Amino acid sequence: MKKIVLLICAVLSLTFFTACGESGIVFTTQKFEESNIFDEYVNISSKYNNFISNFESVYNTSVTTEAMIFTNNMMNYKILQDLILFTMPVFEIGQPTSDQVVYYQDINFNCFSTQSPLCFRYFANNGQKLGEEYRYSVECDNAVWVDNNETKTLDNLLIEYSLVVNVNDSTGLNEYTIITSCEQEDDFSNTYIISFDDKTSYIFVDVKNNIDETVNMQVEYYSLSDDYQIARLISYKYVNFMPNYNVIDFMFKDYNGRVKLSKEGTVKPSRIKGLANVTYSDFARILDKEKQNETLGKYSYEIMQGRVSVDKFGSLI
Fold first, then answer.
1. What is the mean pLDDT of residues 70-81?
2. Which residues are CB-neighbours of 202 under 8 A, at least 6 positions away?
3. Mean pLDDT over each residue of the chain, to the nearest integer
4. N or C: which terminus of the chain carries fewer CB neighbours within 10 A?
5. For the chain, percent helix, then strand, then coil, each to nearest 5?
6. What percent of the chain has pLDDT over 70?
7. Which residues of 5-14 are buried (b: 16+ CB within 10 A; e: fewer)?
8. What pTM was computed for the model?
């Protein structure tokens, strides 16, 4: 009799977790799927591309305000992802003992393309090493890219890179400071601070434009167990000498998931490092405690089995 009661309790418990869905899902870290940061970032950027493309293909017949807001914000994310991809071959080249050339194709880019099948020629010149600083350059013929819905072209794109590696004492992780400069186009003149932990699949990138220093972006990624991907993109622009923050949260597995867009005003958003304040049930959703200031708009989009639903509060326009 006791065994029957225990069995019934176990079944009811399982039913509870299954019915609630989210209650039984816990975000846990895992190691990099790939062997290095170069391959890992290309891998996760491909997963985000597939998820967003599927979302937009389902949503593209809609001309609602919510759909337009989603599309515009995804374009901003795609541009950032492309800029980060531009830095990744630096990790592939490493610190060479002799001159090297690495060819890098544009298959993973959203807003960038070329007419050349071997589109990027990265050069690592050992003679350019100055102390702890390493120098690289990239050449690209017939460059075409999109910036803020504007198509730009250059016959020859030349970007110069400077790389310095330091250890962050607070995290114990290597911190890679990469400064890019481009005389032909300000879009590619940026400062990147990149750190990652291959044991927990954590990647952090801070991007600042060297020309317009009022615009800054930070993005964090986790490739979690059970094939979940989560990320938080924090962007901010100074208005009257005060930073105004916007956040994009991603959470998905394959083609199902959620994206949350939110204004945070002058309150600095928290990061997801360590996963201490991140749960499946809350992440990328509008919480009750957030519904206190209608001037700070929040939109949460969910796609499940090809159907999109939207929860919104306030306005993002």
1. 92
2. 29, 196, 220, 221, 222, 273
3. 83
4. N
5. 25, 40, 35
6. 84
7. eeeeeeeeee
8. 0.87
Which pLDDT score is estimated for 22? 52
Strands 242-253 and 298-304: unpaired
CA dihedral 152, 69, 273, 90 (to 10 degrees): -10
- Taking the C-alpha atoms of residue 33 and residue 41, their distance in angstroms, rounded to an integer, is 10
Instruction: List Cβ<8 Å contacts ≥24 apart for 208-215.
Output: 210/179, 210/181, 210/186, 211/186, 212/186, 214/238
Among candidates 286, 221, 294, 284, which has minimal Cα distance to 258?
A: 284
Q: At what angle do helices 65-87 and 37-59 cross, to 10 degrees?
A: 160
- In angstroms, the CA 212 to CA 53 distance is 30
Spatial CA neighbour of 70 closest among 84, 85, 58: 58
Q: Which of 152-166, 199-213, 300-314 has the lowest mean pLDDT?
A: 152-166
pLDDT of 115? 63
For strand 190-197 and strand 242-253, is the pairing parallel, antiparallel, or unpaired? unpaired
Longest dimension (CA), the chain: 81
164 DSSP β-pair partners? 133, 177
Beta bridge partners of 260: 249, 300
Range of 11-15, 158-162, 211-215, 248-252 with top mean pLDDT: 248-252
Say if CB 260 and CB 298 are below 8 A apart: yes
Average pLDDT over residues 60-82: 88
Measured CA to CA in angstroms, residue 37 lies from 119, 195, 198 at distances of 21, 10, 8
Helix then strand count (H, E) for the chain reads 4, 14
List the beta strands (DSSP E) in the chain.
100-104, 112-114, 120-124, 133-147, 150-167, 174-181, 190-197, 202-209, 215-223, 229-239, 242-253, 256-265, 298-304, 307-313
